[in-house]
Design goal:
Largest sheet: 10 strands, mixed
CATH topology of one domain: Cytosolic phospholipase A2 catalytic domain
InterPro entries: Acyl_Trfase/lysoPLipase, NTE, PNPLA_dom, TPR-S
CATH architecture of one domain: 3-Layer(aba) Sandwich
Organism: Flavobacterium cellulosilyticum
Protein name: PNPLA domain-containing protein
Strand content: 5-15%
Keywords: Hydrolase, Lipid degradation, Lipid metabolism, Membrane, Transmembrane, Transmembrane helix
GO molecular function: hydrolase activity
Shape: globular
Distance between the termini: 63 Å
CATH class of one domain: Alpha Beta
Number of strands: 10
Helix content: 40-55%
Length: 875
């Protein structure tokens, strides 16, 4: 049997015009691509076949256009802003949609609008879906044996119940309206019609050779009418007959949605009138239906108590770990600790990381990979996730103390290599340090000895699940296999560049052709990439995501695309919260952990042009952040996403409005709390306001963070998560190491040491001087001595008229300068040789600086970095 990758290769050959008829027929190739959900390739080869038929004048079957529309709206690589309208246009142009009497065509149109509603939650799309399903239902009633075997009728029932649920979730003062009851009753009656049409009084199917989809239709009809025993029977028949896992997944997800409807109906049902038949809802029987859905393998034993069916209806959960250097990484650890306590880490299916978030995201993912590959799904507990984060809060912090920014220059050989070739930059060196101090120790501990880790090494293969497919099998796992996305920014196009365990490239779904006409650099699977990129190092991917422009050179990737020298920089340039990747993966529950820098208020005039440039750039970045988060909030308000939690370092740090001079109006109490100005006051999540304010000003750097500042950042992230993320926590809170600073963060009488540390933490240079008094005295003494010598020299030479330096501008000098400029326009190399400071001399100077820097940076690490970490030790 041909596997997925072989089918894809055959599809590529056919699309290139190569003859593959001797290997496989068109119909076999097409069916195989559909089986593996390769809707993009299926679309392209179907379009090719249609074009071939048009050229030779052969008729094109209507079913081809129907299949084309289905493939397009199901293609996850296409944007929702494009694919639904495109699919509808195909039905309108080629299937005579407006006058169609074909249940299949009408059912596809109903499905397109249903999925379009799921995408944008525009209510009129739901009504359009119902209209097409209703027309199909009416046609089915006229001839139940020669149409679609009740498929559109069943979806008509589902849409009516969904509309009723929409009203129940947004109740009015009138309570349950007649319109809601009418829609609910209609959904029940249509399902009963379907059952009566195909099942006799002895509960046997009346058809001699029933289609496999009839089993699915009857199973859903019975489940929707609360006849769970019969539902189990037809669920079992369907699963025994259906071999394609993606169809089973779609089938099962419908049951979870209907179960959630029944839960809402039960909540809103009157115990006297029982308008929603809640007395017939049996949760135990529901769970038995779910158990039948889970047992795809007849030999597989599933523990009913271990399956959390309620979680499956929430949709996909994604978390964004923002940029912000090690400050953000440490804040994210606190957020992960809170989520572990609330037993939410097991539900996360997408981890979108940027810059500092990528550093910790990859670290967490390696630990998670070990857990998921050494324990079966039903063996993993909440304590396993808690243990992972408990190890991270200690081990990651120890690695952060190494001061990677300084260590970039502490290897003499690497320094010369960075100086000598553009193919090896500070960003490459940074990536190697990430691997050496963060990732390789974990990889060697959990997996095997290695000199480097590659992106495809991150692929997770669950224990005893050799044929696991994340798209078809992840939905039934209690402990999800998340997709890790490391986000960078492509300087060539300005687009988001993504690294995952399987592929890299620019996403297709969130690049709008209406406004962005630049070409997109297509994604590639590593096995299909040019030879030198088939193995792409994890450290380089994280470095690409975190190489802040100017401080680090762009990560240069040559010979990946024809004629393009690809340059990648910090992912925060494009999207510092990782929002785009989460939305692209269609997550409906979103957690944003935002440890990024936020613009501070300025009360003084901008000093100079350079300061003005940086201030304007900061304003642009701040505005982009605001727009992205406001977009998420608007999606939450419109129902496009179910849950949204945004945790950030300035949470609760609002300021009172500033009144003009001689203003007589007082600030409104309704809008502003009086205690907002009390810096010792505890914020809602239990951290003193002045401490949180100073944490929000901590540097976003890759230098050393000692325990005191690290634990304070973790504590803030943890407290916000415990307070804001409303999933039930355990009965008692865990003993986290970072809680050793709890008293510093909450009690004014104990905060002095932390306050002193955080005052220094906002600065990049001279932190050790600010913390260590003897250094301040030494520097003061040196300044006094230097001042004395300067004054002494000035005093002794005050009356001397001899100039310190003289300069004569001659025609010869001017001519030489112009000659050098002329030579420079023709030969850069000759200009180096003839320059006043020749090419060779400058190389010698650079080499000397490399040696001096090597000595200075190593000295700093040995003396000052060690001292800084000791000053920040938490007892």
């Amino acid at each position: 049997m041909i596997n997925k990758y072989e089918l894809i290769e055959l599809a590529k050959k056919q699309l290139r015009g190569e003859d593959i008829d001797s290997t496989i027929t068109f119909h076999e190739l097409y069916a195989g691509l559909i089986k593996y959900e390769q809707f993009g390739y299926a679309t392209e080869i179907l379009l090719t076949k249609i074009e071939e038929n048009e050229k030779i004048g052969e008729s094109i079957p209507n079913i081809w256009y129907q299949q084309l529309a289905i493939n397009i709206y199901k293609d996850s690589s296409l944007s929702g802003f494009f694919k639904f309208d495109k699919a509808m246009n195909i039905l309108k142009s080629h299937c005579n949609l407006e006058q169609s009497q074909d249940c299949e065509t009408l059912g596809i149109a109903g499905a397109i609008y249903k999925y379009k509603w799921k995408f944008d939650h525009q209510f009129h799309h739901l009504l359009q879906s119902r209209a097409f399903y209703k027309k199909g239902y009416q046609i089915w009633k006229k001839n139940t044996l020669k149409t679609d075997m009740g498929h559109t009728a069943l979806n008509y029932a589902y849409i009516n119940e969904l509309l009723a649920i929409q009203n129940l979730e947004h109740p009015t003062t009138d309570g349950v309206t007649d319109e809601v009851l009418k829609r609910f009753s209609l959904s029940q009656s249509v399902r009963k019609e379907i059952i009566a049409e195909y099942v006799n009084k002895n509960h046997e199917i009346t058809m001699v050779q029933p289609d496999v989809w009839l089993y699915a239709t009857l199973a859903e009809a019975y489940f929707g009418t609360r006849q769970y025993e019969m539902a189990i029977r037809f669920i079992t028949l369907y699963i025994q007959s259906e071999n394609e896992k993606w169809k089973i997944k779609t089938f099962a997800q419908q049951f979870y949605r209907i179960a959630s409807f029944q839960e809402i109906e039960k909540t809103n049902s009157d115990s006297v009138s029982d308008v929603f038949l809640s007395s017939q809802i049996d949760e135990k029987k529901q769970n038995e239906c779910f158990l039948a859905l889970e047992k795809l393998n007849k030999e597989e034993e599933v523990d009913l108590d271990c399956i959390e069916f309620a979680a499956k209806k929430e949709g996909k959960v994604g978390i964004g770990l923002s940029g912000g250097g090690f400050r953000a990484s440490l804040f994210h650890i606190g957020v992960l600790a809170g989520l572990a306590e609330k037993d939410k880490l097991k539900d996360i299916e997408v981890i979108s990381c940027v810059s500092g978030g990528s550093i910790i995201g990859a670290y967490y993912y390696l630990k998670l990979k070990h857990l998921l590959q050494t324990k079966e799904d039903n063996e993993i507990t909440k304590e396993d996730y808690i243990d992972i984060v408990k190890e991270m809060e200690i081990d990651f912090q120890n690695a952060v103390e190494k001061n990677l920014r300084v260590m970039i220059f502490t290897n003499l050989f690497k320094n010369i290599k960075m100086f000598w070739t553009k193919k090896y930059s500070r960003s490459h060196r940074l990536g190697e340090l990430y691997e050496e101090y963060f990732y390789l120790p974990l990889y060697k501990k959990y997996f095997s000895e290695a000199k480097a880790i590659y992106m495809n090494d991150l692929c997770i293969k669950p224990k005893n699940k050799t044929d696991f497919n994340i798209y078809n099998d992840n939905w039934k796992r209690r402990n999800k296999i998340p997709q890790l996305v490391l986000n960078a920014t492509c300087l060539n196009t300005g687009h988001n560049w993504q690294f995952t365990a399987s592929w890299m490239g620019e996403p297709s779904t969130y690049i709008s052709d209406d406004f962005d006409v630049k070409p997109r650099l297509r994604r590639m699977y590593y096995q299909n990439a040019p030879e030198i990129y088939k193995k792409f190092r994890l450290g380089y991917a994280v470095a690409a995501s975190s190489c802040v422009p100017v401080l680090f050179e762009p990560l240069l990737l040559q010979n990946m695309y024809d004629g393009i020298d690809l340059e990648l920089v910090d992912g925060g340039v494009h999207d510092n919260q990782g929002v785009v990747s989460i939305l692209e993966q269609e997550c409906s529950s979103i957690i944003i952990s935002d440890g990024s820098a936020q613009m501070a208020n300025s009360q003084s005039v901008v000093a100079n042009e350079l300061s003005l440039f940086f201030r304007v750039d900061t304003i642009v970045q701040e505005r982009v952040r605001e727009i992205q988060l406001l977009d998420l909030k608007s999606r939450k308000y419109t129902g496009s996403i179910n849950q949204l939690y945004i945790l950030h370092l300035k949470n609760g740090l609002s300021k009172l409005p500033v009144s003009w001079i001689n203003c007589t109006d007082v600030n409104r109490k309704l809008l502003n709390q009086i205690e907002i100005e009390d810096t010792n006051a505890l914020l809602d999540y239990g951290v003193m306001k002045k401490v949180q304010q100073m944490l929000s000003e901590v540097r976003t750097d890759l230098d050393s963070f000692n325990q005191l500042e690290s634990y304070a950042l973790m504590y803030s992230g943890y407290q916000q998560t415990i307070h804001q993320v409303d999933y039930p926590a355990n009965n008692f809170q865990q003993k986290w190491k970072f809680k050793d600073v709890a008293s510093y963060c909450t009690l004014p009488e104990f905060d002095s040491r932390l306050i002193k540390q955080l005052k220094a933490s906002s600065n990049v240079p001279f932190k050790i001087v600010r913390l260590f008094k003897p250094f301040q005295y030494i520097i003061f003494l040196l300044l006094v001595v230097a001042t004395f010598f300067v004054l002494k020299i000035l005093y002794e030479n005050w009356y001397l008229d001899t100039p310190l330096y003289s300069f004569n501008l001659t025609y010869k000098l001017i001519g030489t300068f112009l000659l050098i400029l002329l030579i420079n326009s023709f030969s850069k190399f000759l200009s180096y040789l003839f320059n006043f400071q020749s090419y060779i001399k400058r190389k010698i100077i650079y080499l000397a600086l490399i040696f001096i820097g090597f000595i200075l940076f190593n000295t700093y690490l040995l003396l000052f970095n060690t001292m800084y970490n000791k000053l920040g030790k938490v007892a």
